[in-house]
Fold this sequence. Notes:
Blueprint lengths: L7 H9 L3 H4 L3 E6 L4 H14 L4 E4 L11 E3 L2 E2 L2 H17 L6 H15 L4 E5 L17 E6 L7 H4 L3 H8 L9 E4 L4 H14 L3 E4 L23 H18 L7 H9 L8 E6 L5 E6 L5 H18 L7 E5 L7 H8 L5 E4 L17 H7 L6 E4 L3 H15 L2 E5 L2 H13 L9
Helix pairs in contact: 1-5, 3-9, 3-10, 4-5, 7-8, 11-12
Amino acid sequence: MPIHLGLTRVLKLLKALGNPHLTGNFKAIHVAGTNGKGSICNYLSHILTASNITNGRFTSPHLLTRSDSIQINNIPIDPKVFQTFENQVIDTDRRFSIGCTEFELLTCVAFEVFKEKRVEVAIFEVGVGGRLDATNVLQSSNLLCTGVAKIGMDHQKLLGNTLEEIATQKLGIMKQGIPCVIDGTNVPSVLELARKRASELHSKLYEALIDSQTKYRFGLYGDFKTPLHGKYQQNNLSVALRLLDIARGQGFANITKDTITKGLEETKWPGRLDEFDLRLPSGNSLPVLLDGAHNINAVTELIQYLDESYRVRHGGKYNSLIYVMAVKKDKNIKTLFKKLFKPNDKIIFTTFNENIEGMPWVRCTQPKLLKEEAAGTSNTIVLKPTLNDALDEAYNQHFKTGKDVVICGSLYLVSDVLRYHVANGGVISGYK
Length: 432
């Protein structure tokens, strides 16, 4: 079933399930945005866990299996437990002939799990957009606060053709009287829309920013630095810390400077500017930078990291790279390629697995089309039909030329690479 936004079906199913989104004894933090919302949720769950606050986290897409979309204290729920809840949800959907989408079903599973596990705080990442996303059934009565990450151009066919139209959809998670934190680096037009909506809803709006020394100044907490790569992570952390400030003021007093420090020390985020040694079937390892950059904002951040940090540490700012890329259909790939590639880079276009559990609408752009769109950006473009073939080529080229390997273009590709790594005996940092 394709993505079909709207709240009618999911509300019917939740009612049939006994409204776990309302009867669960938890307070929720709801996070939207184009880039960074998953990172914000990740910071929140690690710090809450370090603060001994039982929390649930619902993010998408999944990393290895669908069950890891739902975590308790940063531990994916047991697949058997997931299956039990999923079967109940699916059976109820069929019994009442509701016809929920796969994501709506998964959202309901998350609500059921969080209710059953009696989490104190439930963290929900928006799937697509905000206003009509299945997660937006949360109401003022059980919301602590809402957060909005950086907003950019993505999902135009679903959300609108202008940044302002897209922002309107994402700001739709804001609720009457509920404080909201927005990344203060958003463009002025987006911030103005947020201020207007906050005024209409009588909601306090916080615009999170960092100072020139890349430190954080929030209430009682002092200064903190992100453990994750990329300058943009500083902005994501600033949003997370302000959200935690709000939570602390609403009864969660065991969030302290010490627990924030501990939570950040334990924070990992696989597949986001993630540098590690990728395990190969031969037993050899290939050093890679793995990143889910798939839209213009994310690619811009990737480029900044490559130019200011990665290339500098690996031979110089203008050092050429080997790219392994697969891209989901319906992306503005020509613009991405023009910004990302340099003439001496070697580009290996491949595919990701389209048989994604619970996401039948996801389709991969064929490598041949990627090559056509990349014409004129690089002197060397190679097509490989499978990820295995692409990584073999990258390994051979790395040791032949000394060029470093960057894998990017899709979070679905990230998942395939991590599964490949684990299948060959590798360990994922930060994944329990």
